Amino acid sequence: xxxxxxxxxxxxxxxxxxxxxxxxxxxxxxxxxxxxxxxxxxxxxxxxxxxxxxxxxxxxxxxxxxxxxxxxxxxxxxxxxxxxxxxxxxxxxxxxxxxxxxxxxxxxxxxxxxxxxxxxxxxxxxxxxxxxxxxxxxxxxxxxxxxxxxxxxxxxxxxxxxxxxxxxxxxxxxxxxxxxxxxxxxxxxxxxxxxxxxxxxxxxxxxxxxxxxxxxxxxxxxxxxxxxxxxxxxxxxxxxxxxxxxxxxxxxxxxxxxxxxxxxxxxxxxxxxxxx
Length: 276
Fold this sequence. Notes:
The protein is mostly helical.
């Protein structure tokens, strides 16, 4: 939904920072022995992410003979999250990397934590892989949980790899019900490859964005009704159209597929709304 630059933190730096604060020498030795497998897995993750094939990564622990899964989860829970440590600073660097602290999955709520795009319970070797850590709101993180995905279209959009911002694909259409304007959202299938359309539809469905956006946009229409009416009375349809055109430009500066941007486009395309 919202594209982000891939973290500049290297896999080596993240793993070493998360490992260094453990006092248990046996655990430190297991982490040292598992390090090459982690680096290989992180490099494979980066390669598969760039070729839209993260779903091909097998779950399980490829370093099982060197380190148990629980230790790799501990590496995240007690290593990366340890307060007042270099590792926690790296965690915060990724968590704070979104524009205006907006969750890239829903492009609406505030980021509060990091989500493992591939769940650490199923892919423990990637528990501190920087590219597997995505800033997320609590709601989206909870929705994803530990799901695994069998195809590119089934998986959610990955903010670091799946670029969808260059095209206006989010469509909003207005319907009038009982005297009130209601906003409904859809994906413009004519502007995207069929696989990308299916991926977006699955993403919206999994995260409940159809309902979320419709509720937010319909409420916004109600809040803005008085202002729009003032423009209509003072300058007619031309004034309303000018207001909406400025709104589209303003919202596009943040995201051309934010629900507010699509809503403004939908209003602008609806002659009845403009001239009412």
